[in-house]
Design goal:
It is globular and about 40 Å long. The protein has a seven-stranded mixed beta sheet with strand order 3-2-4-1-5-6-7, sandwiched between helices. Helix 1 crosses helix 2, helix 4 packs across helix 5 and helix 5 crosses helix 6. Helices cover 40% and strands 15% of the residues. With 196 residues, it is of the alpha/beta class. It contains six helices and seven strands; from the N terminus they run E-H-E-H-E-H-H-E-H-H-E-E-E. The chain has one domain: Rossmann fold (3-Layer(aba) Sandwich). The longest helix is centred in the middle third of the chain and has 18 residues. The two termini are 19 Å apart.
Amino acid sequence: MPVLVLVKHSLPEIDPAVPSREWPLSEEGRARSRTLAQKLGRYDLDMIVSSNEPKAVETASISARGLNVPVEVVEGLHEHERSNVGFLEKDHFEQSIGRFYSRPAELVFGEETADAAYDRFSKAVHGVSDRFSQATLALVTHGTVLSLFVSRISGLKPFATWKQLGLPSFIVLSRPGFGVAETCWRVEDAGPRAVE
């Protein structure tokens, strides 16, 4: 059966003066995207689908070139809406993400509750999966929504999953049913590991 590979985008060029949703990849991020393509090669992908954010589109495009597969940008796969939040230092950002996951029905960070972000992202994932039901796909997206989605379908803890995800990283879901089959927390590591 075809699988669905949820990919967290590669390493961006961080610019505190620019909203994070506009960040492109860094040079290292582009190199890691080529490594990502090598790791994704084992899944014999039919196509890569991307969120509309530049760092995701660039990750998807570089990987797709390496695999010689098409790319499609799909609405709804973008990161948790938080463009009203400026650049935060690491500790403050992690505390905000922790509150976001622990109080999912409340607007505690950004412009979207965790429940709203999940509903929007889940609808986009299911829509893509249904439209390409016989295809093996990679969806290049973002850490907060990816962790939120995976936690609700698998029982993994969202904050712990979010903390483990490297830039890039991926989680392989079986289809149908979206069971977590493999994880690759960092593409620089040895490779995907089966989930028991």
